[in-house]
Amino acid sequence: MTSLRHVLATLGEPLVEVVVAPHGLGVPVTDVVILDPEDPLEASPGDLVLVIGARGRAAAPAIRAAGRGGAAAVAVKGATGADVAADAGVALLTVGAEARWEQVEALARGVVEAARAGGEAASGEVLGDLFALAQTIATLTGGLVSIEDTANRVLAYSRAGDEVDELRRLSILGREGPERYLAMLREWGVYQRLRAGEGIVRIDERPELGIRRRIAAGIHAGKQPLGTIWVQEGAQPLTEGAETALLGASRALAPQLIRARTLPSPELRLREDLLASLLEGRLDAESVADDIGADPARPAQVLAFSLGPPGPSPRLQPGTPQKPIVRSDNRQLRRAELVHLIAVHTAAYRRSALVSVIGGRVYALLPDLPEHSDAAVLALAREIAATARRHLDAPVRAALGGVVPRLSEAAASRGDADRVLAAMTRGHWAADVASLADVRAEVLLSEVLAYLGSQPRIRDPRLTALAEHDTEHGGILVPAVLAWLNAFGDVRAAARELNIHPNTVRYRVRRAAEVSGVDFDDPAQRLLTQLQLRL
Fold first, then answer.
1. Does the pLDDT of residue 49 top 50, yes or no?
2. 255: cis peptide before it, omega within 30°?
3. Of 350, 353, 374, which Cα lies nearest the Cα of 362?
4. Separation CA 348–CA 337 (nearest Å)
5. Which of 10, 134, 162, 402 could form a disulfide with 416 if both were Cys (CB 3.0 to 4.6 A apart)?
6. Around Cβ 514, how many Cβ atoms within 10 Å?
7. What confidence tens digit (pLDDT) does each residue in 160-219 have?
8. Contacts of residue 487, Cβ cutoff 8 Å, sequence gap at least 6
9. How far apart are CA 153 and CA 176, in angstroms?
10. Three-state secondary structure of 379-420
11. Comparing 272 with 350, which gets the higher pLDDT?
12. Which of 38-52, 301-315, 405-419, 479-493 is least confident?
């Protein structure tokens, strides 16, 4: 059994706030129930009642009914019924306007079920309670703490006031890091450093992005990453010993996350973890094959799916009797629906198929592939993308990784699929589905450019100087050279591309050669110029 105080410590701002608590916060909470005012108004002792479909004073009947039933608390949106709750003898909580009811229910039910399963420790905290640990870390560091798993899902967080930044606010409301911020953190190499091993990673404040200063540490079991602890600096600077405390916390949390992973879990979650572990190299192919009933020596293939933003809200014609289409703009919910959709389609094709979400993308593993399966898998991917577009009202891109000869090489197929998705995004690929064969040139060029970008010593310093000179003098030479090279030296085609006169193209190419000293008559130098200037 847990208390209302403990549930509130778990939820906290920005999800819920206490309006009134006639019997204090120590009242026991034994269950979480959802109450619709249009249904019979009933509650039982110890219930945390979530009143949906009624705001403010409209929730008064539900509040009175909860009080008559002995409920511990009532949660509503737009709460203005403090006097009603006080008269009914029940605590009243107000839920943030942006919060989703399913998020509030999931968090609260998690606390209640954890207390029911594990009991309470002598200190009064639920055994293995990550929220209590997050609050302890916050006290030691002087910051705002959140704990995430390796898929960037928020597992727990400390209480906070008004000093939360946009990254933390969206992460808590969405139960996972928002994709646009995750992409920036990946670009800055933050996750690579966190998963490389122990140590503190520092992220500077970026006011223009809504990010305050924070420090982070990876949670590891040996070399295996388990999650991350983030500490955001609030209104006051972090304590002098914040980094030492964070390092200790990352070590102390490892057993908690290991225990959480070994607890019994639903079949779907187990299968998601199997695929994520296989693709990230944390589990051998034989173990996965044994669990799903597949042959590890047979060919396999990975498909990757990315979910785009929802389409415009549908409008009804005046007088039309049809009901409005109800659609959630919550990316988390739509992605969960996409996972279920993909799981159904892929399981129909291969009984042992696995589906999981990693880093915002949905991956499907197709093991035990028969010979000449290319056409069937392509048709499957197209069907999934089309069905998702219809039912989720959002574009879905599907990328086919290469077929690998055995299950142990599934990570290579996933890498192919990731590169295909990246090429589709960069090249504004018109179709929803593509295979490696479709975008091989774009993928290979991207990898060559990535290598060239990471190896300054093999670049031509003359071209580096040309790019710097052009930046300082209007940026007209490099585009002209690239257009000329892309047109195989056809000055008129390059001029049409740039919407300038052919003589202007000729002049700018000659001027670029003079500034850089590069000989554009040399094929090798032309090729290097075309590659390096694309950087």
1. yes
2. no
3. 353
4. 17
5. 402
6. 10
7. 655 666 666 666 655 556 677 788 888 888 888 888 888 899 988 888 887 888 899 998
8. 493, 494, 497
9. 4
10. HHHHHHHHHHHHHHCCCEEEEECCCECCHHHHHHHHHHHHHH
11. 350
12. 301-315
Pairwise CA distance, residues 189 & 181, whole Å: 13
Residue type, 490: D
53-95 per-position pLDDT tens digit = 777 778 888 888 888 889 999 988 876 678 888 888 998 888 8
With CA atoms as reference, report the closest residue to 181 among 171, 172, 173: 171
Residue range 306-320: mean pLDDT, rounded: 55
Sign of the dihedral defined by the CA atoms of residues 357, 358, 362, 363, in that order: negative
How many C-beta atoms surround the C-beta of residue 146 within 10 A?
26
Model pTM score: 0.44
CA distance linking residue 518 with residue 535, whole number of Å: 17
**Structure-block tokens of residue 292:** 């799903």
In the sheet with 396-400, reading across from the earlier edge strand, the strands are 354-358, 361-366, 301-307, 396-400, 433-435
- CB atoms inside a 10 Å sphere around CB 368: 20
For the record, the structure tokens of 312 come out as 């415009």
Q: What's the rounded Cα separation, in Å, for the pair 386 and 450? A: 33
Residues contacting 419, CB < 8 A, separation 6+: 436, 443, 446, 447
Average pLDDT, the chain: 79
